[in-house]
Amino acid sequence: MPHVLVVGSGIAGLTCALKLAQAKPQWSITVVTKASADESNTKYAQGGVAAVWDYQKDSYDKHIADTLDAGDGLCNPEVVELVIKEGPERVREIIAWGADFDREDSGTYHLGREGGHSEDRVLHHKDLTGWELEKTLLEVIHNQPNITVLTHHFVLDLITQHHQGRIVTRHTSPITCFGAYLLDLTSGQIETVLANVTVLASGGAGQVYKSTTNPTIATGDGIAMVYRAKGQIANMEFVQFHPTSLYDPEASPSFLISEAVRGAGAELKTQSGEAFMLRYDSRGSLAPRDIVARAIDSEMKRRGEEFVYLDARHIPATELTNHFPSIYQTCATQGWDMTRDMIPVVPAAHYLCGGVEVDVMGRTTIDRLYACGECTCTGLHGANRLASNSLLEAMVYAHRIYEDILALDALPELANGIPDWNAAGTTEPKEMVLITQSLKELKEIMTSYVGIVRSNERLERALSRLRLLSAETEKLYHSTTISPQLCELRNLITIGYLVTKSASLRHESRGLHCTTDYPVHATWADDTIL
């Protein structure tokens, strides 16, 4: 059994695992992922890492101010300060491990600018930053003898006292995590994996919507597991829609056109060629994402059109092809030459600002369970994430979890009396259509009723339909054998409920939560906790 079990192989999980393994060579660290080791939301992060780098032009105060402004009054100022100030050192560490960020001819790092930033501070590897960071970490980890990476293993549930038949809640005795049940997708066997400490870095949940930039694995598994285990979840209503995914109704996931393209000068225009963003914000196409996504949504609805254009034709062709090679090539394969054509774009679900509530050391409300990365709500993002702050947050919190685990006087003992997974009474599912159709219904519900703009009536209708879907899926779950498709459906329904319920509790429009029933900042509400 591992000393530390890490769930997830994105930048957050891999960074934490690597630091622990190097500091404690006598410990066994196991990283679990339900796909291949490099398949994560990190891999698809195009833009880069936001960090104060040019101290002559930039400062911590400026980055902090930009983050607080984007978060629309709901950021935790303490968390914002610690992430911004600790971030550059974490970036230097991953550079030391081998990460290659783009440089100017002079040798200094090329710093990009994205929406909501007042200075150029985004380090990047062309438009494949996430891929570069993921590759770097995996190369180092594969040479670390005390790390085991279990690919194609689906985490079914966190093991707590509930599996011992004990009834505990967040209001009674402390809930404790003892490890997790894993489904080996190759053998079909369910394994009981106990650990002294568990770190959850399971990523986001964009697949709850029809159109998302997230890969198919982003099904909110970790958040759903913590909710089932009675852990605390916060601010789930704040789902960030990236303003510019390439318009292609048949594509899944949607292809992201990085915000860095707008940082380089690209401008949003209507289908008639009119620039419209200055009507919504003085920063134009480089306003924070919540403002830009709502503006695009408003223009499309007002005009009855399915997309707007991103115009990059005035940017030098060499800059487009050198800095954005994958974006340029993907657009070209769809018949759009960025140097000559305006590119059709539309908002798509991109990032979840809420999630498992953690403190400044990454501790959840469940003992012996830490969490970092997109599955968490740290307080950094507030009501809307500032572009390229996510990779920074992941590295900072991975480091803080590593420090907190090392500071323990001794690792907690492994639990005794944990039963194996009980599959008694279940049968093979007779019709897979029950799962696939329910997933389609869920995505339709969330897209139609809990999208960029919401209303009380839409949210009530969504909750009513989600309850029915949940009841049907729970019946199927308890009567048929376990499959990853069924578990992902169950988890996504939980995510849909949490997003919708949280949205119904917030009686104001703020950041990423926009409702037609309440004006902006009507009540100046605190976090929504479920």
What is the CATH T-level topology of the domain at 242-348?
A: Flavocytochrome C3, Chain A, domain 1
First-last Cα distance: 32 Å
Query: For this structure, what is the CATH class of the domain at 242-348?
Result: Alpha Beta
Oligomer: single chain
Which strand-content bin applies to the residues?
5-15%
Proportion of helical residues: 25-40%
Spatial ordering of strands, largest sheet:
6-2-1-10-17
Computed CA radius of gyration, to the nearest angstrom: 22 Å
CATH level-four homologous superfamily name of the domain at 242-348: Succinate dehydrogenase/fumarate reductase flavoprotein, catalytic domain
How many helix segments?
13
The major pleated sheet works out as: 5 strands, parallel
Overall geometric form: globular
Instruction: Tally the beta strands.
Output: 20
Question: Which architecture name of the domain at 242-348 does CATH use?
Answer: Alpha-Beta Complex
Structural class of the helix and strand makeup?
alpha/beta
Poorly predicted residue ranges:
none
Mean pLDDT: 92
Structure description:
34% of the residues lie in helices and 15% in strands. It has a five-stranded parallel β-sheet with strand order 6-2-1-10-17, covered by helices on one side. Strands 12-15-14-13 form a four-stranded antiparallel β-sheet, covered by helices on one side. A hairpin with a 5-residue loop joins strand 8 (179-184) and strand 9 (190-194). It is α/β, with parallel strands linked by helices. The longest helix has 24 residues, at 456-479. The protein is globular, with a radius of gyration of 22 Å. Helix 1 (11-23) packs parallel to helix 4 (129-141) and helix 11 (433-449) runs parallel beside helix 13 (484-505). The two termini are 32 Å apart.
